Known about the structure:
Layout: E1 2-7, H1 12-22, E2 28-35, H2 39-49, E3 53-56, H3 59-69, H4 76-82, E4 89-92, H5 100-108, E5 112-115, H6 118-128, E6 135-137, H7 140-148, E7 156-161, H8 179-182, H9 192-200, H10 202-215, E8 220-223, E9 229-234, E10 240-244, H11 250-257, H12 291-295, H13 301-318, H14 323-334, H15 345-362
Parallel strand pairs: 1-2, 1-4, 2-3, 4-5, 5-6, 7-8
Antiparallel strand pairs: 7-9, 9-10
Helix pairs in contact: 2-3, 5-6, 6-10, 7-10, 9-13, 13-14, 13-15
Amino acid sequence: MMKVALFGSTGSVGKMTLEVLEKFPNDFSIHALVAHRSSALLVEQVKKYKPQTVVLYDEAEASKAEKMLSKQVHFGKEGLLRALDSADLMVQSMSSTEGIEATIEAAKRGIKIAIANKETIIAAHHLLKPYNPLLRPIDSEHSSLKKLYENQRPVKTTITGSGGPFLHRPLKEFSTITLKEALIHPNWPMGAHNTINSSTMFNKALEVMEAHSLFGMAPLAVIEPTSRIHAFAEYEDGMTQMVAYQPDMRVPIAHALGVERTLPFPFRKNLDLSKIEFSPIDPERFPLFQLAYEAIKTECGPLFLMFLNEFLVDDFLKGSLSWLDLQHKLQQGFESLPQFSIDSIEAIKELKKITKSIHKCITSTSYTAC
């Protein structure tokens, strides 16, 4: 039986991972549950799944959960590392960069890693590489690309995107887009940051950069509004293969866990491929997408772009920046891309500080140039 340490158990991917694990009680045991701040939901999960180790990254929330559970709840960096003790598989779905050091530690220990965290791959792929980790991507696009790379290396790959909630909204109305509207995704339930990134299609920029880190090749991207086709690849012999299934994150999660060949597969849905349409990504409608191809030309470009977008999305969620300004500021800030080598965790932290300074500069009311 494989012992699973689930990082980000209270997020959307974490909750769906628990749903998948429930279907295979003879194959997996839930060894550790890890969350950032959601103590109430984590307490519910602990009572239901009874993990050996419980971690809340936030110390105050950990203390609160400990009182509710009458069980030790670990916190901080040490807590994240403790969750890996005796684990066979790490499912890494913690948002932002808190889980990077734990992911590197898992790679050092030879623990299998099912990863849904773009930030960790983009930030730390240089640091993970020496340990030759067994990474199993959970994102539907990268899970699909992994299958397409299994037998031969493609000469060209393409991922798809739904186009988000504003695919058909007139450009002249973009200035009136509200937070409530931007938080509605047409096909997938996701967290707030990911949903906003979908609305600007910055999520596809992140996925291009992530794929470049994972496979050494930056895919193209097209819009496929139904999210039924996830990726396709062209090979030297002229053949094109695609991966298609009804939008359901439990499918790539099951693949990352290694149970996709179990029959009967519990999440199978009949696939209707009628009325599939592809269209290019309009750079006027979605200007942030092309930044990915500029960013991968430099070592720190993807990480800098990811951090800057993270700060600006926070501003939008707080109401201090409009949806259009979020995009304008990201384009503006990318012009200040520093030259920086990502050779340590400390370098990642330092780049985040530099990016925060540039963010402060470009969002200042007295902004001139950074």
